[in-house]
Amino acid sequence: MSEYKLLPPSIFIVDKPKGLSSFDIIRQFKKSIPLTKDKIGHLGTLDPFATGMLLIACSGAARLSDYTHQFFSKSYHALGLLGVTTPSGDPTTAISSYENFSFPSHPHVISLLNEKLQNHFLGEYMQSPHSFSAAKFQGRALYKWAREGKLLTKEEKRREILNLEVKSIFKASLADYFPEVAEADASMAPTIYAIEFTATVSSGTYIRSLFADIAKSLNTIGTLVELKRTAIGHLSLEGSSHKIVTPLRPSPSTVENRLSPSELLPLPSIDLCGVSLKQYTNGMPIPLENLQVETSLFSQYQSYYQVDPDGLTWIYDTNTAPTLIGLGVLQKNLLTPLINWSARLKR
Q1: CA pair distance 174, 169, nearest whole angstrom
Q2: Catalytic residues
Q3: pLDDT tens-digit profile of 236-267?
Q4: pLDDT tens, 321-346?
Q5: Boundaries of every domain in the chain
Q6: Burial class (CB within 10 angstroms; exposed 0-12, middle 13-18, buried 19+) of 247
Q7: Do 162 and 303 contact (CB within 8 A), yes or no?
Q8: CATH classification of 74-227, choosing from 1.10.10.10, 3.40.50.920, 3.40.190.10, 3.30.2350.10?
Q9: Where are the alpha helices (H) located in the chain, listed in sequence order?
Protein backbone atom coordinates (compact mmCIF):
# COMPACT_ATOMS: atom_id res chain seq x y z
CA MET A 1 0.00 0.00 0.00
CA SER A 2 2.90 2.35 0.60
CA GLU A 3 3.59 2.60 -3.14
CA TYR A 4 0.54 4.84 -3.46
CA LYS A 5 1.55 7.35 -0.80
CA LEU A 6 3.37 9.43 -3.40
CA LEU A 7 0.32 9.84 -5.61
CA PRO A 8 0.45 13.47 -6.76
CA PRO A 9 -2.59 15.76 -6.57
CA SER A 10 -5.19 13.96 -8.67
CA ILE A 11 -8.74 14.22 -9.99
CA PHE A 12 -10.94 11.33 -11.13
CA ILE A 13 -13.98 11.55 -13.41
CA VAL A 14 -16.78 9.37 -12.05
CA ASP A 15 -20.08 8.59 -13.78
CA LYS A 16 -22.23 8.48 -10.64
CA PRO A 17 -25.18 6.07 -10.69
CA LYS A 18 -28.62 6.86 -9.32
CA GLY A 19 -29.23 6.22 -5.63
CA LEU A 20 -25.75 6.99 -4.30
CA SER A 21 -24.76 10.25 -2.63
CA SER A 22 -21.55 12.05 -3.52
CA PHE A 23 -20.13 10.98 -0.16
CA ASP A 24 -21.02 7.35 -0.90
CA ILE A 25 -18.66 7.62 -3.87
CA ILE A 26 -15.95 9.18 -1.71
CA ARG A 27 -16.31 6.32 0.78
CA GLN A 28 -15.82 3.81 -2.05
CA PHE A 29 -12.56 5.52 -2.98
CA LYS A 30 -11.36 5.60 0.62
CA LYS A 31 -12.07 1.88 1.07
CA SER A 32 -10.77 0.60 -2.21
CA ILE A 33 -7.81 2.76 -3.16
CA PRO A 34 -4.85 3.31 -0.83
CA LEU A 35 -4.35 6.81 -2.21
CA THR A 36 -3.03 8.79 0.73
CA LYS A 37 -4.10 9.67 4.23
CA ASP A 38 -5.13 13.06 2.90
CA LYS A 39 -8.69 14.26 2.57
CA ILE A 40 -10.61 13.00 -0.46
CA GLY A 41 -13.35 15.33 -1.65
CA HIS A 42 -15.52 16.18 -4.60
CA LEU A 43 -15.54 19.26 -6.81
CA GLY A 44 -19.30 19.78 -6.89
CA THR A 45 -21.96 17.54 -5.34
CA LEU A 46 -24.74 15.58 -7.04
CA ASP A 47 -28.01 14.67 -5.32
CA PRO A 48 -28.59 10.92 -4.78
CA PHE A 49 -31.38 10.82 -7.40
CA ALA A 50 -29.07 12.45 -9.98
CA THR A 51 -26.50 10.71 -12.16
CA GLY A 52 -23.51 11.72 -14.21
CA MET A 53 -20.20 13.50 -13.85
CA LEU A 54 -18.75 13.75 -10.37
CA LEU A 55 -15.15 14.90 -9.95
CA ILE A 56 -13.31 13.24 -7.06
CA ALA A 57 -10.18 15.03 -5.84
CA CYS A 58 -7.39 13.66 -3.66
CA SER A 59 -3.82 14.37 -2.51
CA GLY A 60 -4.43 18.08 -2.13
CA ALA A 61 -6.44 18.58 -5.33
CA ALA A 62 -9.60 19.33 -3.32
CA ARG A 63 -8.11 22.81 -2.84
CA LEU A 64 -9.06 23.46 -6.46
CA SER A 65 -12.80 23.26 -5.72
CA ASP A 66 -13.41 27.01 -5.58
CA TYR A 67 -11.55 27.57 -8.84
CA THR A 68 -13.59 24.86 -10.58
CA HIS A 69 -16.86 26.46 -9.45
CA GLN A 70 -15.69 29.95 -10.34
CA PHE A 71 -14.38 29.20 -13.82
CA PHE A 72 -16.57 26.51 -15.37
CA SER A 73 -20.19 26.05 -16.35
CA LYS A 74 -22.01 22.75 -15.86
CA SER A 75 -24.20 20.96 -18.39
CA TYR A 76 -27.18 18.73 -17.65
CA HIS A 77 -29.71 16.47 -19.37
CA ALA A 78 -32.97 16.49 -17.41
CA LEU A 79 -36.58 15.38 -17.35
CA GLY A 80 -39.35 17.21 -15.51
CA LEU A 81 -43.08 16.68 -15.04
CA LEU A 82 -45.58 19.52 -15.39
CA GLY A 83 -48.78 19.69 -13.35
CA VAL A 84 -47.33 17.88 -10.34
CA THR A 85 -45.00 18.87 -7.52
CA THR A 86 -43.24 17.53 -4.45
CA PRO A 87 -41.81 19.38 -1.42
CA SER A 88 -38.24 18.65 -2.53
CA GLY A 89 -38.82 19.41 -6.21
CA ASP A 90 -37.60 15.93 -7.11
CA PRO A 91 -38.80 12.31 -6.76
CA THR A 92 -37.30 11.79 -3.29
CA THR A 93 -40.44 13.07 -1.55
CA ALA A 94 -44.09 12.23 -2.14
CA ILE A 95 -46.35 14.14 -4.53
CA SER A 96 -47.96 17.04 -2.69
CA SER A 97 -50.23 18.57 -5.34
CA TYR A 98 -51.59 18.30 -8.87
CA GLU A 99 -52.77 20.84 -11.42
CA ASN A 100 -54.48 20.49 -14.76
CA PHE A 101 -52.11 21.43 -17.55
CA SER A 102 -51.98 20.74 -21.26
CA PHE A 103 -49.96 21.89 -24.23
CA PRO A 104 -51.75 23.43 -27.19
CA SER A 105 -52.00 21.16 -30.20
CA HIS A 106 -49.46 22.72 -32.54
CA PRO A 107 -47.04 21.10 -35.02
CA HIS A 108 -44.20 23.35 -33.84
CA VAL A 109 -44.90 23.29 -30.12
CA ILE A 110 -41.28 22.42 -29.20
CA SER A 111 -39.74 25.23 -31.25
CA LEU A 112 -42.31 27.69 -29.90
CA LEU A 113 -41.60 26.55 -26.33
CA ASN A 114 -37.86 26.88 -26.87
CA GLU A 115 -38.29 30.41 -28.16
CA LYS A 116 -40.39 31.33 -25.13
CA LEU A 117 -38.07 29.76 -22.55
CA GLN A 118 -34.86 31.02 -24.12
CA ASN A 119 -36.19 34.56 -24.28
CA HIS A 120 -37.23 34.29 -20.64
CA PHE A 121 -34.27 32.50 -19.06
CA LEU A 122 -31.07 32.89 -21.07
CA GLY A 123 -28.58 35.25 -19.48
CA GLU A 124 -28.59 36.52 -15.91
CA TYR A 125 -30.95 34.60 -13.66
CA MET A 126 -31.72 35.17 -9.98
CA GLN A 127 -32.25 32.00 -7.96
CA SER A 128 -32.59 31.01 -4.31
CA PRO A 129 -31.17 27.68 -3.12
CA HIS A 130 -33.91 25.07 -2.81
CA SER A 131 -35.22 24.38 0.71
CA PHE A 132 -34.17 20.74 0.24
CA SER A 133 -30.64 21.57 -0.95
CA ALA A 134 -27.17 21.20 0.57
CA ALA A 135 -26.85 24.99 0.93
CA LYS A 136 -26.27 25.83 4.57
CA PHE A 137 -27.96 27.94 7.22
CA GLN A 138 -26.18 28.31 10.57
CA GLY A 139 -23.70 25.65 9.44
CA ARG A 140 -26.38 23.07 8.71
CA ALA A 141 -27.69 21.91 5.32
CA LEU A 142 -31.12 23.26 4.37
CA TYR A 143 -32.42 19.77 3.61
CA LYS A 144 -31.76 18.75 7.22
CA TRP A 145 -33.86 21.69 8.43
CA ALA A 146 -36.54 20.76 5.88
CA ARG A 147 -36.74 17.18 7.13
CA GLU A 148 -37.63 18.63 10.53
CA GLY A 149 -40.44 20.65 8.98
CA LYS A 150 -38.52 23.93 8.79
CA LEU A 151 -38.54 25.13 5.18
CA LEU A 152 -35.99 27.94 5.01
CA THR A 153 -35.49 30.41 2.18
CA LYS A 154 -32.11 31.99 1.52
CA GLU A 155 -31.58 35.18 -0.44
CA GLU A 156 -31.42 35.02 -4.20
CA LYS A 157 -28.06 34.87 -5.94
CA ARG A 158 -27.13 35.81 -9.47
CA ARG A 159 -26.72 32.82 -11.76
CA GLU A 160 -26.41 32.54 -15.52
CA ILE A 161 -28.24 30.30 -17.97
CA LEU A 162 -25.95 29.80 -20.96
CA ASN A 163 -28.08 27.34 -22.88
CA LEU A 164 -31.57 25.89 -22.46
CA GLU A 165 -33.20 23.61 -25.00
CA VAL A 166 -36.32 21.45 -24.88
CA LYS A 167 -35.67 18.14 -26.64
CA SER A 168 -39.07 16.46 -26.38
CA ILE A 169 -42.54 16.68 -24.82
CA PHE A 170 -44.67 13.63 -24.08
CA LYS A 171 -47.49 12.38 -21.87
CA ALA A 172 -46.10 10.59 -18.84
CA SER A 173 -47.25 7.98 -16.36
CA LEU A 174 -46.70 9.00 -12.74
CA ALA A 175 -46.10 5.38 -11.75
CA ASP A 176 -42.93 5.37 -13.88
CA TYR A 177 -41.34 8.04 -11.68
CA PHE A 178 -43.14 7.61 -8.35
CA PRO A 179 -43.34 3.86 -7.60
CA GLU A 180 -45.56 4.51 -4.60
CA VAL A 181 -48.25 5.75 -6.98
CA ALA A 182 -50.26 2.73 -8.06
CA GLU A 183 -51.41 2.56 -11.66
CA ALA A 184 -55.00 2.93 -10.48
CA ASP A 185 -54.13 6.09 -8.55
CA ALA A 186 -52.11 7.48 -11.46
CA SER A 187 -55.05 7.07 -13.79
CA MET A 188 -57.12 9.30 -11.48
CA ALA A 189 -54.58 12.13 -11.70
CA PRO A 190 -54.73 14.86 -14.37
CA THR A 191 -52.83 14.27 -17.59
CA ILE A 192 -49.14 14.74 -16.84
CA TYR A 193 -46.73 16.07 -19.44
CA ALA A 194 -42.99 15.47 -19.32
CA ILE A 195 -40.38 17.83 -20.72
CA GLU A 196 -36.95 16.50 -21.65
CA PHE A 197 -34.40 19.31 -21.81
CA THR A 198 -30.73 20.20 -21.66
CA ALA A 199 -29.21 23.13 -19.81
CA THR A 200 -25.79 24.68 -19.43
CA VAL A 201 -25.59 26.90 -16.37
CA SER A 202 -23.17 28.69 -14.10
CA SER A 203 -21.96 26.79 -11.07
CA GLY A 204 -24.35 26.90 -8.11
CA THR A 205 -27.51 26.78 -10.22
CA TYR A 206 -30.12 24.28 -9.01
CA ILE A 207 -31.74 22.56 -11.99
CA ARG A 208 -34.81 21.47 -10.01
CA SER A 209 -35.37 25.11 -9.01
CA LEU A 210 -34.84 26.14 -12.62
CA PHE A 211 -37.46 23.61 -13.72
CA ALA A 212 -39.90 24.87 -11.09
CA ASP A 213 -39.37 28.35 -12.56
CA ILE A 214 -39.90 26.96 -16.06
CA ALA A 215 -43.20 25.46 -14.90
CA LYS A 216 -44.16 28.77 -13.30
CA SER A 217 -43.48 30.58 -16.58
CA LEU A 218 -45.99 28.17 -18.15
CA ASN A 219 -48.54 28.98 -15.41
CA THR A 220 -48.34 25.61 -13.72
CA ILE A 221 -46.26 23.61 -11.23
CA GLY A 222 -43.51 21.12 -11.92
CA THR A 223 -41.03 18.72 -10.41
CA LEU A 224 -37.76 17.32 -11.73
CA VAL A 225 -37.65 13.51 -11.94
CA GLU A 226 -34.39 12.77 -13.77
CA LEU A 227 -31.09 14.65 -13.85
CA LYS A 228 -27.73 13.79 -15.40
CA ARG A 229 -24.68 16.04 -15.31
CA THR A 230 -22.97 15.61 -18.66
CA ALA A 231 -20.10 18.11 -18.51
CA ILE A 232 -18.11 20.47 -16.33
CA GLY A 233 -16.31 23.05 -18.43
CA HIS A 234 -14.23 21.25 -21.06
CA LEU A 235 -14.62 17.85 -19.36
CA SER A 236 -17.47 15.79 -20.80
CA LEU A 237 -18.81 12.29 -20.22
CA GLU A 238 -19.52 11.87 -23.92
CA GLY A 239 -16.57 11.80 -26.25
CA SER A 240 -14.15 12.25 -23.37
CA SER A 241 -10.51 11.40 -24.03
CA HIS A 242 -10.16 10.74 -20.30
CA LYS A 243 -11.04 7.42 -18.70
CA ILE A 244 -14.23 7.33 -16.66
CA VAL A 245 -13.93 5.58 -13.29
CA THR A 246 -16.55 3.01 -12.28
CA PRO A 247 -17.48 4.12 -8.75
CA LEU A 248 -18.60 0.74 -7.41
CA ARG A 249 -15.39 -1.01 -8.43
CA PRO A 250 -12.47 1.34 -7.80
CA SER A 251 -9.16 -0.45 -7.32
CA PRO A 252 -5.46 0.40 -7.09
CA SER A 253 -5.37 0.45 -10.91
CA THR A 254 -7.83 3.36 -10.82
CA VAL A 255 -4.87 5.68 -10.18
CA GLU A 256 -3.91 5.16 -13.83
CA ASN A 257 -7.08 7.07 -14.78
CA ARG A 258 -6.17 10.20 -12.85
CA LEU A 259 -6.26 13.72 -14.21
CA SER A 260 -3.56 16.14 -13.20
CA PRO A 261 -4.63 19.55 -11.86
CA SER A 262 -3.46 21.13 -15.12
CA GLU A 263 -5.84 18.86 -17.07
CA LEU A 264 -8.69 20.02 -14.85
CA LEU A 265 -7.69 23.69 -15.09
CA PRO A 266 -5.74 24.36 -18.29
CA LEU A 267 -3.84 27.50 -17.27
CA PRO A 268 -0.61 29.23 -18.28
CA SER A 269 2.49 27.73 -16.69
CA ILE A 270 5.97 28.72 -15.54
CA ASP A 271 9.03 26.48 -15.14
CA LEU A 272 11.19 27.12 -12.08
CA CYS A 273 14.58 25.80 -11.03
CA GLY A 274 17.49 26.80 -8.83
CA VAL A 275 17.08 29.91 -6.70
CA SER A 276 13.63 30.80 -8.08
CA LEU A 277 12.33 27.34 -7.24
CA LYS A 278 13.65 27.59 -3.69
CA GLN A 279 11.97 30.97 -3.26
CA TYR A 280 8.66 29.54 -4.45
CA THR A 281 8.76 26.48 -2.18
CA ASN A 282 9.54 28.81 0.74
CA GLY A 283 6.43 30.85 -0.06
CA MET A 284 8.30 33.93 -1.25
CA PRO A 285 7.16 36.18 -4.14
CA ILE A 286 9.45 35.97 -7.18
CA PRO A 287 10.23 38.85 -9.58
CA LEU A 288 9.11 38.07 -13.12
CA GLU A 289 12.50 38.91 -14.58
CA ASN A 290 13.77 36.01 -16.70
CA LEU A 291 10.59 33.98 -16.13
CA GLN A 292 8.86 32.74 -19.28
CA VAL A 293 5.10 32.10 -19.23
CA GLU A 294 3.83 29.24 -21.42
CA THR A 295 0.28 29.97 -22.63
CA SER A 296 -0.43 27.46 -25.43
CA LEU A 297 -2.52 25.09 -23.27
CA PHE A 298 -4.57 27.93 -21.81
CA SER A 299 -5.17 29.40 -25.28
CA GLN A 300 -6.60 26.08 -26.42
CA TYR A 301 -9.21 26.01 -23.62
CA GLN A 302 -9.71 29.71 -22.90
CA SER A 303 -13.24 29.74 -24.36
CA TYR A 304 -14.45 27.39 -21.60
CA TYR A 305 -13.65 29.86 -18.83
CA GLN A 306 -16.58 31.92 -17.57
CA VAL A 307 -14.24 34.23 -15.65
CA ASP A 308 -10.76 35.43 -16.56
CA PRO A 309 -8.20 33.45 -14.49
CA ASP A 310 -6.48 36.81 -13.95
CA GLY A 311 -2.86 35.76 -13.63
CA LEU A 312 -3.29 32.24 -12.23
CA THR A 313 -0.34 30.11 -13.31
CA TRP A 314 0.76 26.51 -12.78
CA ILE A 315 4.26 26.11 -11.39
CA TYR A 316 6.60 23.31 -12.52
CA ASP A 317 9.81 22.14 -10.86
CA THR A 318 12.32 21.55 -13.67
CA ASN A 319 15.37 20.71 -11.56
CA THR A 320 14.91 17.13 -12.77
CA ALA A 321 11.88 15.90 -14.74
CA PRO A 322 9.19 18.62 -14.98
CA THR A 323 6.84 18.17 -12.01
CA LEU A 324 3.74 20.21 -11.20
CA ILE A 325 4.27 21.56 -7.69
CA GLY A 326 1.71 24.29 -7.24
CA LEU A 327 -0.33 27.27 -8.31
CA GLY A 328 0.73 30.91 -8.28
CA VAL A 329 -0.62 34.26 -9.38
CA LEU A 330 1.12 36.86 -11.54
CA GLN A 331 0.47 40.37 -10.25
CA LYS A 332 2.49 43.59 -10.44
CA ASN A 333 5.54 41.86 -11.95
CA LEU A 334 5.63 39.30 -9.15
CA LEU A 335 4.83 35.59 -9.02
CA THR A 336 3.14 34.94 -5.67
CA PRO A 337 2.60 31.35 -4.41
CA LEU A 338 -1.02 30.31 -3.73
CA ILE A 339 -0.78 26.52 -3.47
CA ASN A 340 2.45 24.67 -2.77
CA TRP A 341 2.49 20.87 -3.14
CA SER A 342 6.28 20.51 -3.18
CA ALA A 343 6.57 19.17 0.38
CA ARG A 344 3.79 16.63 -0.24
CA LEU A 345 5.53 15.32 -3.35
CA LYS A 346 8.75 14.65 -1.40
CA ARG A 347 7.11 12.29 1.12
Answers
A1: 15
A2: 47
A3: 988 666 677 766 665 666 777 889 999 999 99
A4: 889 999 999 988 899 999 999 877 66
A5: 2-70+236-261, 74-227, 266-345
A6: buried
A7: no
A8: 3.30.2350.10
A9: 22-32, 65-71, 109-121, 142-147, 183-188, 207-217, 261-264, 274-281, 296-301, 342-345
